[in-house]
């Protein structure tokens, strides 16, 4: 089944070229089916890139999905055209009386700030509180995952000595858990962050389960035991060239970054990076949608408690 997105969203052209089945509003209205309602709070500066990456992963299931894109009302993005935000995004105050099957809170380049110093922290806390009773399952990604752990469980992020950037090998800790069902015992995933969370803090929390980690990159995947909250500490949604784009951007800024680990062939930045994580990224999102959203959420969304 297709993913339903606005007809002129830039992601539509990209996904169509990849032979991904998408559906615009007009055609979706003729379908006699209740689609899953998924909202994405996109906190990334490059919103068009991020929305395309996430929509690609959300589209690879038999389920019909109705997407709502959200941006913050207390902070205006400086890197995305205002026309794009006006055409395709809405804000929390406009949807807070609605309920959703699933919700995604993306990462944000804010890891060097204390949470309380983030411009839209109060708004984000209001949204995270709202999801408890208006969303069946919420996925938190990278900085969004750190924010979620901090707000919901009092687990704090820890500053790293230098930026963690690269494609790292991970191990599946509980292979029978539905979120990692079908995962290989070891798999790759990208990371790009200045902070981390101590896996021991997750394991000490009786409400959480650590599902995958890495010797080099630390905790990668965790979930609340009721499945209502999913935490991804890396960027499985990244395209093959995203780390390269970030590396070159940091070079231009004079940051003198390390070359992303296990990414360029022989650390030669002129080579074309190979995507080693695509299959597990698709499987992660498919498992979340199937086992934690579709099979758990009530048919009548008003019954979400």
Describe this structure in words.
This protein has one domain (3-159, 195-238, 278-303): Rossmann fold (3-Layer(aba) Sandwich). It is built from 10 helices and 12 strands. Helix 1 (10-17) crosses helix 3 (47-58). Strands 1, 2, 3, 4, 5, 6, 7, 8, 9, 10, 11 and 12 form a 12-stranded mixed β-sheet that branches. Strand 6 (100-105), helix 6 (121-134) and strand 7 form a beta-alpha-beta unit. With 305 residues, it is of the alpha/beta class. 31% of the residues lie in helices and 25% in strands. 44% of the residues are buried. The protein is globular, with a radius of gyration of 18 Å.
Describe the secondary-structure layout:
Layout: E1 3-4, H1 10-17, E2 22-23, H2 25-28, E3 36-41, H3 47-58, E4 65-70, H4 82-88, E5 89-90, H5 92-95, E6 100-105, H6 121-134, E7 135-141, H7 143-153, E8 158-172, E9 186-196, H8 199-204, E10 208-214, E11 218-224, E12 229-232, H9 242-252, H10 278-294
Parallel strand pairs: 1-2, 1-4, 3-4, 3-6, 4-5, 6-7, 7-12
Antiparallel strand pairs: 8-9, 8-10, 10-11, 11-12
Helix pairs in contact: 1-3
Q: Can you summarize the main beta sheet? A: 12 strands, mixed
Give the integer mean of the pLDDT values: 91
CATH topology: Rossmann fold
Q: How many E-type strands?
A: 12
Number of domains: 1
Secondary-structure element string? EHEHEHEHEHEHEHEEHEEEHH
Beta-strand residue fraction: 15-25%
CATH class value = Alpha Beta
Instruction: Name the CATH architecture.
Output: 3-Layer(aba) Sandwich
What is the structural class? alpha/beta
Low-confidence stretches: none
CATH superfamily: Class I glutamine amidotransferase (GATase) domain
The number of helical runs is 10
Helix content: 25-40%
**For the terminal residues, how far apart are their CA atoms?**
28 Å
Q: What coarse outline follows from CA principal-axis ratios?
A: globular
**Radius of gyration from the alpha-carbon trace, in angstroms:** 18 Å
